[in-house]
Amino acid sequence: MKFLNEDTINRFSEHISTVFGVGYTAYAPGTMGSLYGLLLYMFLKDASVFVYVSFVVVLFVLGVFVSDVMEEIYGIKDPSFVIIDEVVGMMIAFISVPYTPLVAIAGFLLFRIVDISKIPPLNLLEKIGGGFGIMIDDAVGGLIVNIVLQVLTR
User: Fold this and answer.
1) Pick from 10, 15, 88, 89: most CB atoms within 10 A?
2) Per residue in 6-38, pLDDT tens?
3) Cα dist. 66→56, 75, 109, 134, 151 in Å?
């Protein structure tokens, strides 16, 4: 299988980890990744919980792989242009949360606050390093926001 050479894997990883180049935006790439996650949520909000969660799990696992490749290519710990972690974290924030425009806005703002502030245990999780470290702090941040949204919407 010659199509799975190192160059192909690197290019694939770059496309997925930067969400097809969105991560290269000069202003607030993490916020752009969160907006992309919100957009994906908007498309999938009516899907079954199984389909939604399955999509998020696949994206998380893929994100670990591609983020790890990007750290290796660039030699930078958690490069700011890698935004797949924000996409996944944002999608986790909305698992089984009833949709309203107000809830979508609140979830987005809460996720950005949690992601930027790196409240414990997120500050410890990001120190894990590698692709898993890049992904897990945003995934747990999304879980924290999900719990808050579950309480607020019930």
Assistant:
1) 89
2) 888 999 999 999 999 999 987 899 999 999 999
3) 15, 14, 26, 10, 34
> String of b and e for 124-154 (b: at least 16 CB within 10 Å)?
ebbeeeebbbbbbbbbbbbebbbebbeeeee
98: Cβ–Cβ under 8 A, 6 or more apart, which residues? 153
Residue 19 tokens, joined: 């969400």
Q: How far apart are CA 123 and CA 102, in angstroms?
A: 28
Angstrom distances, CA of residue 57 to CA of 32, 37, 141, 146: 21, 14, 15, 16
**Whole-prediction pTM value?**
0.94
Q: Which single residue is written with the structure tokens 């050479």? A: 5
CA–CA dist 74, 24 (Å, integer): 14
User: CA 30 to CA 32: how far, in whole Å?
Assistant: 5
| Mean per-residue pLDDT over the chain, rounded | 93
What single letter denotes the amino acid at residue 154?
A: R
**Is residue 25 a contact partner of residue 86, using CB atoms and an 8 Å limit?**
no
